[in-house]
Input
Amino acid sequence: MKPPTLWSALLLALSVSAIQAADADPTRALPEGEKPHDARIGKVRTLDDKDFDFHVPTTLKEWETRRRALREQVLVAEGLWPMPEKTPLNPVIHGKIDRDDYTVEKVFFASMPGHYVSGNLYRPKGKTGKLPAVLSPHGHWKDGRMYDAGETVAKKQIEINAETNTAGARYPLQARCVQLARMGCVVFHYDMVGVADSQQIAHREGFTDAAAELRLQSFMGLQTWNSIRALDFLLSLPDVDPARIGVTGASGGGTQTFILCAVDDRPTVAFPAVMVSTAMQGGCVCENASYLRQGTGNVELAALFAPKPLGMTGAHDWTIDIEKRGLPELKALYKLYGAEDRVMAKCFPQFEHNYNQVSRQVMYNWFNKTLKLGQPEPVVEKPFEPIPPKELSVYDAQHPLPKDAVDAARLRQLMAEASDRRIKDLRPRAAKEVWRYHHFFGTALRVMVHDDLPSSDEVEAKEVGDRQEHDGVISRRYLLSRKGQGEQIPAVGMCRANFNGTVVVWVHPAGKSSLYKDGKLVPAAEKILDAKAGILAVDVLGTGELSLDKQPIVDPKYAGFTFGYNRPLLAQRVHDILTAVAFVRGNEKTKQVDLVGWDEAGPWVMLARALCGDAVARTAADANGFSFDKVKTTDDPMMLPGAVKYGGLYALTGLAAPGELYLHNLDRALTDSWLPSVYAAYFAENLVRKADKTDPVTVADWLLR
Output
């Protein structure tokens, strides 16, 4: 049986003979002492969870829609939305080392002013014309591309049949570059930040404070940008064929591989080794960023490369089940493209985490086929003469690190200035420019909240208890949720008998109990009901019956370990407001939806309104003197990574245009012109701003005028 809708249930209450008297709190949804069983309260999701499964859409159209949204999520998470300006690389290539059938050169270039990427360029000898190329990030091996396993480890690798010769066993990273060059590829083997020759910024440091989060400046984002610029460098070489570009790395280099291939269309073949799985998602700050894996995981992120050829290996680590969990889903996705044979994975459970010769040879044969290298198969790695690690170093007396090289603090400052210029250019100055602002800011906010206004069909409402009448007000209590998400958002709907179809969604830091004081409706609520409108008041997460015993824990080492997998508290509150709006909007008797945010809940409502489109007519919110610049710790309840990058509260609220908006109690320190400039492109008169806090009854009058 279809459950009663909100307003029909309330009006039906008039004909019910046994209307109960109100209890001490007429808004309470659950018995005193009982708390909602909301799935969001309790254990947070972490990178070590084992259920990052990929649920394959049933149609290609569904996947393409999902793919577009997920790619945007990755770009926002990495601080690359919109893409930063590409400044000159000014590459330096020197110090050629000659071997029998290949050469090795030393390279450094500026991925952005003051920050240098370093690495080695392997080239085949005796080849003419345009050659295939491979970008090769090294991963978390000691000293990176200069890794030397040592004689003892090398001997052990040969004993367990992981390697066949001492050179490959001792220098496995050099081995793969050499073999690929011998197969006819130009190979660029480049440093992670803080490893080998990249010593401007220590690995895992420099991007973990609140200011970095608010600007979405992350170690991972920097490394992804370096990968994009490394690809720019590789493609700038006159002997490289842009139609045949491979990328391969293992462990952290595997993460760099599939993330680059998720956001850049230029790679044509990928082989992320020992990283893609439904278990551990990457344990370093350089593999995590806020928002990156909310609602997704490495298998689906790797799937963004479809239908291009994708190969993987697994080992006796978190990737051990790749052939049973991950590969079948990827094959099902590739089948939607008619390209099932373009994805493969092979696990070698006899070996620990590795990119050994056994695994490398799987990659060589995959690249031989997909990059059309024309080598006799099976391709078997040959012994080589290793280059002593010190001789691979790119900097020397004749080629020192450039004098303009900067540390993390200065780099972040330069990044912020460049980002601010880019964002400022998106401020609409005419009506024809509004679409750019909505495209970039709207996408960013959807990712930051990890939500959009749902359809009414996506919302579930469980009616709780009996209908009540209190001072002539008919009320009904609910627990709201999105379907399948296990939420319980307490809400109360109320109206009088002459309800006219206008509903005000009421959001307050004290929750729905704020409707009453000393057993009576507060004047603003009374005003709304007397005007024949209804009210839906909600306890968003952390308020009212949905209050928390303690603040959600944010990883003190790096917030990306928390917000990469879980919504920030502020985003959860915005999510709950959107649920309430969708619930009200879906009722057949609702003619108009308005929003009001009181006190510190005002900014929550402003952000929610920005995602509501034309579902909400009028919104009044107390800005509470708030600015995201005031957030100084990553566990602040108002932390929303990226909020400063995208202009702050008022710039994001501009997405509400042209909806009628009344803001009061503004931050006096701001001389913000975002809101007026956006509204000027629509209807300037729809925006009302008051510096001082407005009396609640006056706010209600504006809503009901």
Q: What stands out?
A: The CA atoms of residues 54 and 300 lie 5 Å apart. Confidence is low (pLDDT under 50) at residues 9-23.
